[in-house]
Design goal:
Pfam families: Tryp_alpha_amyl. It is built from 6 helices and no strands. It is an all-alpha fold.
Length: about 120
Amino acid sequence: MAAVLNSRKTPQAVVAVLVAAALLASSASAAITCGQVGSSLAPCIPYATGRASALPASCCSGVKSLNSAARTSADRQAACRCLKSLANSVKSVNMGTVATIPGKCGVSVGFPISMSTDCNKIS
């Protein structure tokens, strides 16, 4: 009798595990990665460091793409953290210049671009 009960529970357990795995996979893929942020904003680095006087169109394309990808609060918070990390890793980045880039590209990010921004408070 115990073997019969266990065999009936096994398909339910397998379904429960598969559903849990699917939910974890979908939530993990929802957040923006630092790789995406870096790739999207790489064309902006010469402008943000003062090595280019004009804002490249490819920078604005990246900003717009990243803004479109950041649909949820978790996405925007992840992008904020990655942006701060990227800014820390790029020598001679001018955060004042960085803060102007979204506006120059016609994008409203909904939070201040600053090293003092608390990314956890972004909704």
